[in-house]
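Entry type: protein chain
Record version: 2
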Amino acid sequence: MSISTRLEGSVKAGLALLAVAALAATLNRATHTDEGAANWISYFTNLSNLFGVAVLLTGAVALLWGTRPVPDLVRGAATLYLVITGAVYWSLLAGTIDANTIIWANDVVHGVMPAVFLADWLLRPPLRRIPWTKALPWLAFPLLYLAYSLLRGPSAGWYPYDFLDPRNPGGYGHVATWSVIITLAFSVVASLLVLYANARRKSGTTGGTGGIGERDGRDQELTVA
């Protein structure tokens, strides 16, 4: 195993542990405030970062111990969710921080993790073409999350984001508008990720070792349908 492979695996493990620390800090804060653990786990940010941690750790193990790498469809899903997490936060929610916000943890989950996954996808795109039909299921989780948030909200008396709260001016019409906008954003970003990956493959300029946890083209053949 090369030094660069060990270094990459170690860096990804370190980034995963950084995200774990950030999530743990915000969970600890939530359990000691009115927010509570049930509301903490109901943020898309936290769910997407938990998924990202799992992908990073799996990739790190693959690089350091030679286990099976992370399939590109899983990498793509994590990249999509985290990129949207960062984009929505910095465009709509960055001004909502308050005295309870843990700044460093907030920056990790909304800035560092989205940047890491986007950079990994851009620098080490998939070695095989991603069919559009296989990328479509990436949208299932955001849609299920939307349904969960709207169904849980009335009974919990709490919504994770203002644009999902029908108690705000505009009511459900406002929620519906923003739901459509964000669903379109997910669709557009997913399309761009697929287009970029397939274009890089056609041009023959893909990275030599694949993405998070990828070792070589042979491994990629084994893990991606």
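Comment: The chain has one domain: 3-223.
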